[in-house]
Amino acid sequence: MEGFIPWPDEFAREYREKGYWLDKTISEVMDECFERYATRTALIADDGRIFTYSELGRLSTRLALHLNALGLKTYDRLLLQIPNVPEVLITYLATLKAGGIPIMALSAYRDSEMGYFAKLAKARAMAVTSTIRDFNYQEMVGRIQTEAPDLNMVFVTGGEPNPGYHSIDRLLQDPIEKSVDSSNLPRPDPDLPGVLLLSGGTTGVPKLIPRTQNDYVYNFLCNAQLCNLGEETVLLIAIPQEHNFAIACPGFMGVISRGGREVLSSSPAPKAAMELIQRHGVTHWVAVPAMILGMLNHPKRQEYDLSSLEVILTGGSKLNPEVALRIRPELGCEVQQVLGMAEGPLFWIRPDDPDEIRLYTQGRPQSPADEFKIVDPSGGEEVAPGEVGELWCRGPHTIRGYYCAPEHNTKAFADDGFYKSGDLVRLHPSGNVVVEGRIKDTINRGGEKISAEEVENHILAHPDVDNCAYVAMPDPILGEKACVFVVLLKGKEMLLESLNGFLINEQKIARFKLPERLELVDSLPLTPVGKINKKELRSVIAERLEKEGG
Ligand code: OOB
To answer: Is 39 exposed, middle or buried (CB count within 10 Å of its CB: 0-12, 13-18, 19+)?
Structure first.
């Protein structure tokens, strides 16, 4: 497949021989589970709908047959941008069953991001919800279609489709399987990309991450076992379902592979989580650290019965040990950290690790075939044990290159295939890693990654801006938020609201990328080699916040 970098033959052979790669497709594995656990509950949505395993199997096959009948072909890309309702999972499964490749997009993305992905991936199809709050997704699709000529099939859930678009809700009610034989559904090659994930990116444009059927199946089978999921597991997902953490780490596919059930929440709020934990006897909650803190500090927490909760699976940003220490006494459950990346690497705490490892490190690789090293970012040599360096990873579920990004790939991957994560870590005496920071120019806003360069390019498009630098500022809940330092052209003025109005209305970027503070300056500090000195700007804003707070 053009734009996809496979593993070298000798690695592929080894991963197969050792039984990591099963040569099954994701939908084959899912279908085996839908049959095995047929009558059990698979999915409970917060709108009250409940689906058994066999219903998920039947509905996803039905929608797959419709997708094929309407023209979706094997390896066609479908942009999936549906919020946390059951249709996101049914459409995901259906796309895979139809031989297509879902592109897992957050509902928060707007024209800028979605248009870019549609063009880069030459997407043939898109599945959206009709509206969320005041945002009309169908109108956005219409605008994108004028620039992305391949995008000619649009599927809509949760509202009437515009003329020419198809209603997912109606297709799900139309029993096409009575007239079309589902055994003829295509079978894509397990060695080719099955799912495209999105990366927050470090450069001016975000990246597409090709996860093969083989690598992704191994990814969730391996970590679902490592997390001890089973038929009694009730897994609460309240982060966006399109996120790798929510779909495959272990997420929806992991819990399905073990016969458990998922509770899907459309709200990330702690109150919603507590209600669902109490109502459905949730045993495992997938949460970024900001959500855990929200629950710990919630004034009405004592009113809920959270006694079913056994484990909080957390990752996406660093869990501070002070917060980790409060979890057992205050919430009565354990915490299991994961240092994960959409590119594939996964470092996990094991359920039986002692506290000094569980609370103070971010884990060790999930697979015996995973390799990692900690490297001096300037020279590429491994650092001494215990020293801080950049984390590099390679293995059966870590990609060998971004999709259609040859130039960036030469920077992000070493010659021998190691992925350069951009994270700074140190090796703990236990063999686990501890995250110490990062060298990539991103902001981690409560687990959502934002490329500084991408947003800077949008800000520089403002007619009054001469120069700018988008940097992280500390936030007690989210960990980080974005602050932008702006140099205006002579005689111009700017408020944060007007800048953000421009970013939303003209540049059409996702809201979570908007800077939350604007600092107007006469000039930006430079490093000795003439680059903008972001380290200095980060400490300027951190100090200023501290003074204001105290
Ligand atoms: C997950 O994936 P991404 O691709 O959104 O973000 C990856 C980055 C990592 O490179 C690291 O900078 C940060 O997020 N990160 C953590 C972390 N887990 C991720 N930083 C500190 N501590 C952690 N535990 O975020 C992701 C993917 C799969 C599972 C979980 C998270």
So the answer is: exposed
Best mutation site among 239, 339, 441 for ligand 1 pocket (most ligand atoms within 8 Å of CB): 339
Mean pLDDT, residues 368-394 taken together: 96
Q: Is 336 in the pocket of ligand 1 (CB under 6 A)?
A: no
pLDDT of 299: 98
pLDDT at 379: 82
- Report the alpha-carbon angle 267-208-382, nearest 5: 105
Q: Work out the number of other CB atoms within 10 angstroms of the CB of residue 462.
A: 20
pLDDT of residue 202 exceeding 90 = no
238 burial level (CB within 10 Å; 0-12, 13-18, 19+): buried
Token duo for residue 320: 């501070």
Task: Report the pLDDT value the prediction gives residue 189, as an integer from 0 to 100.
Answer: 98
Domains of the chain: 25-189 (3.40.50.980), 217-438 (3.40.50.12780), 442-549 (3.30.300.30)
Band of pLDDT at residue 201, cut at 50, 70 and 90 = confident
Report d(CA 128, CA 81) in Å as an integer: 5
From ligand 1's centre to the CA of 57, what distance in Å? 31
